[in-house]
Each structure stands twice: as structure tokens, then as C-alpha cells.
Design brief:
About 30% of the residues lie in helices and about 20% in strands. By secondary structure, it is of the alpha+beta class. It has a domain at about 85-170. The chain has a two-stranded antiparallel ribbon with strand order 1-2. The radius of gyration is 40 Å and the shape is elongated.
């Protein structure tokens, strides 16, 4: 009588080899118990490691929050030293400029009122500066021109009699370095200024 035999294949990666003729294994030193090892699941991260990771990120968040919300003490006009930036003065200048309303290019608010205001501020700065150490030159340009823009099809922008206020502050001696500060004082149409 022929016996039915079940032929089992070893798991991938084991060192068992079967002889095709008799179905017996040719493993060197492997036992049947070793071939039936349960499959291991991938390693899991222990709860203490998760706690360490979360604590690390929480510490970073707290540090960034503390640094971001720590401001130096406010400098006022009363306690400012020479050459120190004072937010109170800058805010007054901003409020004065925004009082003109919207300042689109070509408007009276931009081309006359703002230019006059800037020139008056520059004259006040010149009256307080040490003229033995620094020179302050002011130039108001009225420029006209055109330029092409390759955006959403090509179009040309034209400007006529637009003011540029140029101020050059430099030491009279001892330095060949310069600093350029550049800004717009105009606003878009229909803005609050």
C-alpha cells in the first residue's frame, strides 16, 4: 500500500534542504522544532521611548515659544540714548504718513504732501546732526519713463513726473563704506494708507 506523505517546505531563509527522492531533509544540525519557529513581528517602540520623543518635542516647542515671546524692554523717547531706535518716533512718522490717506503714484498725497513731509523730517535731522562728522545731501528727482513687463501677456508701464527723494548720509572722514536704505512711500489705489 502506498503511503501518502505530506511534504512540507521550510520557511524562506532556513537552511533546510530536501532530497527530492525520499522527502527527507538534509539539514546539518537543524531540528524539526527549529523549522517551526513562530514568525516574529517587527520590533515595536517601547512606551518609554515614545515618552522621551514627545518630551523632546515639547521642550523644543516651549523653548521656541519663550524665545519668540520675550521682547526687550521698550525704548521710549524719554529713556533713549543717542543713535538708538525708538519705536515711538517711528510710529509717529507712520501715523503722520497714513493721515494723508491712500498715496498712489501720481496723486497729490504721494507727489506733494508726502514729499514735503519727508523733506521737513530730513531738515530736522540735519539741524540735529553733528556737521563736523557727517554730511547729508538731499536730492528730489522728478523722473519719467517706461518699462515692459512680460506678465500675462506683454504690456508696458508708463510713469511721468514721479518723485524720488534721495538722501545721502555719509561720514566726512574715516570710512569708505556706505549703506543704502530704499523704500516706497506710495500705496496701492483705494488702500487706507
Amino acid at each position: 500500500m502506498a503511503s501518502n506523505s505530506i511534504r512540507r517546505r521550510p520557511a524562506f531563509g532556513t537552511h533546510m534542504h530536501f532530497d527530492g527522492a525520499n522527502g527527507k531533509d538534509d539539514a546539518a544540525g537543524d531540528t524539526a522544532a527549529e523549522t517551526r519557529r513562530p514568525r516574529t513581528s517587527p520590533p515595536t517602540i517601547d512606551a518609554s521611548v515614545w515618552l522621551l520623543i514627545i518630551s523632546f518635542f515639547a521642550a523644543i516647542l516651549l523653548y521656541v515659544h519663550a524665545v519668540f515671546n520675550t521682547f526687550p524692554p521698550a525704548v521710549t523717547v524719554d529713556n533713549a540714548s543717542a543713535g538708538q531706535f525708538v519705536e515711538e518716533r517711528a510710529r509717529k512718522t507712520l501715523e503722520d504718513l497714513t493721515a494723508f490717506g491712500a498715496r498712489p503714484v501720481g496723486s497729490r498725497a504721494n507727489e506733494e504732501l508726502t514729499v514735503d513731509y519727508l523733506l521737513n523730517e530730513i531738515i530736522q535731522i540735519r539741524s540735529r546732526m553733528n556737521v563736523d562728522q557727517h554730511s547729508l545731501d538731499v536730492d528730489v528727482q522728478r523722473v519719467s519713463g517706461t518699462f515692459s513687463i512680460d506678465f500675462l501677456g506683454q504690456f508696458t508701464s508708463v510713469y511721468d513726473n514721479v518723485n524720488n527723494v534721495i538722501v545721502k548720509l555719509c561720514p566726512k572722514r574715516g570710512s569708505n563704506d556706505s549703506l543704502l536704505v530704499n523704500c516706497h512711500y506710495d500705496t496701492q489705489i483705494n488702500t487706507t494708507g
